Amino acid sequence: MATRRAGWVAHPDGLNPIAVLTAHFPAHWLGASPKNVREWLERARADILFEASSLDAKTGQPAIDHLKAALELGAHAITANKGPIVHAYAELTALAHEKGRKLMHEATVMDGAPIFSLFPMGLPATDLRGFCGVLNSTTNVVLTEIEKGRSLEEALRRAQAIGVAETDPSADLDGWDAAVKVAALTIVLMGVPIQLDQVKRTGIRELSEEKIRSVRAAGMRYKLVCLAERRGDTADCTVQPELLLASDPLANLEGTSSAIRFDLDVFSLSLVEHNPGIEATAYGMLADFVRAVQS
To answer: How far apart are CA 292 and CA 295, in angstroms?
Structure first.
């Protein structure tokens, strides 16, 4: 295991999970502590890497290097980080194929909901023409709390208290997190290799608290909506606040809930994730683990 608090911890015989949970690590090391991810993977003789570093939307690092090291050393690579999917998906999938390993990333969008694993096995012989959804939990919590009468600052503290907002919530409020998710879905599911700067992005900062509450009183709601539509060999992708009627399924999402509608050539399919917690992300990575070892 490797964390900010514990550093690089590795032992070829494995670690006792109960000891790890109580921060009691092996007393005797085989040499010095590993200095980097490659040395750590070699020391641990890892078969699978679970990668959950913080998102760097602009570069995808250091997660890309972590995943490359795992695949090059013959380990399956499982990530909850969207950055590598946006910035290095083709490179990483080619490397995984070359090494006979799996690159898996179910937890990158909508936590443990079966988004990426739904395609192609669950929906063979279909053409995904676009999708529309609310995919950022922080902004959904913030908008919901402002509707209840709280200020933006109070709403952010609420989102941080329940564990969905970072200490610096800029990536959420300015639409970066949602834009990275749109790009990841477009790249993987639609096969369109777009760049992050091709996603037209507007966050929720310019929405006044008064406007958010007044439209709610009139039976409408603002949501940060993610949209992609196929245009030949490319796609139009946007992230922006939209005013939705109460009859719109996306308008009814509360708290940390998220939803997506896939528009296929034969029908449309919607998935809703109701108020997930951190356990949902953990499940997404566990599901990838099961799929990796069973394949």
So the answer is: 6
Q: Over the stretch 154-196, which tens digit does the pLDDT of each residue have?
A: 999 999 998 888 889 999 999 999 999 999 999 999 999 999 9
Look up residue 185 and give its two tokens.
Answer: 């879905």
Distance CA 276, CA 80 (A): 15
CB 135 within 8 A of CB 226: yes
- Listing DSSP states for 110-143 in one string gives STTS-SGGGTTTTSTT--EEEEEEE--HHHHHHH
* Residue 239 to residue 171: CA distance in whole angstroms: 13
Q: Write out 138-177 in H/E/C secondary structure.
A: HHHHHHHHHHCCCCHHHHHHHHHHCCCCCCCCHHHHCCHH
DSSP, collapsed to helix, strand or coil, labels residue 31 as coil
Instruction: Answer positive or negative: Cα dihedral of 103, 109, 111, 112.
Output: negative
User: What six digits make up the tokens of 17?
Assistant: 């999970």
- Residue 22, token pair as written in the block: 């109580």
Nearest CA among 231, 241, 214, 65 for reference residue 146 = 214
Contact 92, 77 (CB under 8 A): yes
- The DSSP string of 75-102 is -EEEE--SHHHHHHHHHHHHHHHHHT--
Question: Which two tokens mark 82?
Answer: 């969207």
